[in-house]
Design goal:
The protein is an alpha/beta fold and about 450 residues long. The protein contains 18 helices and seven strands. The strands form two sheets. A five-stranded mixed sheet has the order 5-4-3-6-7, with helices on both faces. Strand 4 and strand 5 form a beta hairpin. The protein starts with 11 loop residues before the first helix and ends in a 20-residue tail after the last helix.
């Protein structure tokens, strides 16, 4: 008969039933039949959770626990170690109240109880329990339940890593930190002895010699201060291009949106970087602008259209920007370089002070800031250096990409000629650098 509760743990109710049946003297097979489990399950349960009850202190109990006690007739064992007394001439050694024959007899063999050495392993139904001088055991459902809980809790404590595995884990993680790599990137590009989640628990519990401050920090945002400013644009400037209009577009079109933004260096810099982030691919493009102005943004998009050719609208046909003045010339942004009367893209604008509406692009700035920290001057930045930084940023393994890199996704969706024109290439996982002061030195 097939058992329904196969591989399930015994409950407290089952343990109470085992205790009652053992008190009644039933066999393991009979107990297992009523519980619908294997007899070996009952045998392991009793053997594992039986409770030691010591020996009986009754005066009527047989004090000698030798297996040959009943038929033993040895006398004068004490003469080999002590001077015999007058009492020893008429008594058996097992009855002596002066010396313990167990310590003197070479034939001593400890008596083993058949009840505790074989099934049922406990003395629940034994009639001689109260006066037995042998080791006694009982099965109690309440104590068995407590022992099981403690054993299960103890088995889940600590971590299952050898000393060599811990040293390897620490070495690989620290080597990745020196290059500025994230924990997720390190675990995806190396064979690690534990999971990423386990690693964070070990750091939190201080179980490995890596402190929390060594981990890559999350990007911090300044609290925005509200300031009264006179309107720079006429009312209705964004009509038909607001974020609510963007949400009215079909989902199939919104899924391939490219979020655009500009990245600044210091206040004294004239150069800045135009950021284009393809949300579905997590793919990032950085273009260097000589001046932060609307004309420079149009020129950068014109150059990108020359690289992409007639398929520009297919790759960057929908843009979502903030309301910075550099994106004000939406008519020039949308018109094609080759055919001015043809629309190459459509641009929409997020609501003021709502970076969450372009959350993917804002979050991806973290990867750039790992290499070029905030406050670093961009005056010495060149297109070739920026292309190298872009390659490293896009070669970082991302959880959102299915543990692959944005560059690998881009190689499947974008033409090779476009990536080569941008100067982008795939970097080996162990060669990815996300630390400041290596790829760019201001």
């Amino acid at each position: 008969m097939q058992r329904k509760n196969k591989y399930k743990q015994l409950t407290f109710e089952s343990r109470k039933l085992i205790e009652r049946y053992l008190d009644e003297g039933k066999s393991f097979s009979r107990i297992a039949l009523d519980l619908d489990v294997s007899p070996s399950t009952v045998h392991r349960e009793v053997k594992r959770n039986k409770r030691f009850e010591g020996v009986s202190k009754s005066r009527s109990a047989e004090a000698n626990d030798c297996a040959h006690s009943k038929r033993c007739r040895n006398k004068y064992l004490c003469t080999t170690s002590f001077v015999p007394t007058h009492k020893c001439s008429k008594r058996l050694c097992k009855r002596c109240d002066i010396h313990d024959c167990i310590d003197l007899c070479e034939s001593y063999e400890k008596r083993v109880c058949k009840t505790t050495s074989t099934s049922p392993l406990v003395c629940n139904s034994c009639a001689h329990f109260s006066r037995c001088k042998l080791e006694r055991y009982r099965y109690c459902a309440k104590s068995a339940q407590v022992s099981t809980r403690e054993r299960n809790s103890l088995s889940r404590q600590g971590f299952d890593l050898s000393e060599a595995e811990v040293k390897y884990l620490v070495r690989v993680v620290r080597e990745g930190f020196k290059k500025g790599q994230s924990v997720h990137h390190i675990f995806c590009s190396n064979e690690m002895p534990c999971s990423e989640r386990t690693f964070y628990r070990l750091v939190e519990n201080q179980s490995i010699p890596i402190i929390g401050i060594e981990l890559a920090k999350k990007k911090k945002y300044k609290v925005r201060k509200s300031a009264k400013r006179s309107p720079l644009r006429q009312k209705g400037f964004y009509k038909g291009r607001e974020y609510k209009d963007f949400l009215d577009l079909p989902l199939s079109k919104r899924s391939v949106v490219t979020e655009v933004d500009t990245i600044w260096g210091t206040k004294r810099d004239t150069k800045c970087i135009l950021s284009l982030h393809r949300v579905d691919l997590h793919f990032q493009i950085y273009l260097l602008l000589s001046v932060r102005s609307a004309d420079e943004v149009v020129k950068a998009l014109d150059w990108l259209e020359m690289c992409a050719g007639a398929r520009f609208a297919e790759f960057f046909g929908l843009l979502l920007a903030d309301r910075g003045s550099e994106f004000d010339k939406y008519a020039d942004i949308e018109r094609s370089l080759f055919c001015p009367h043809v629309q190459r893209t459509s641009i929409y604008y997020a609501d003021p002070s709502r970076p969450s509406q372009r959350g993917s692009g804002e979050k991806n700035h973290v990867e750039f800031r790992k290499v070029v920290p905030k406050g670093t001057s961009l005056e010495n930045m060149t297109p070739s250096v920026l292309a190298e930084i872009t390659s490293h940023v896009n070669s970082t393994i991302r959880l959102g990409c299915g543990d692959t890199t944005p560059m690998q996704l881009a190689q499947m969706c974008l033409p090779r000629e476009l990536l080569e024109s941008l100067g982008l290439s795939l970097i080996s996982p162990n060669e990815v650098i996300s630390a400041p002061g290596i790829l760019y030195k201001p």
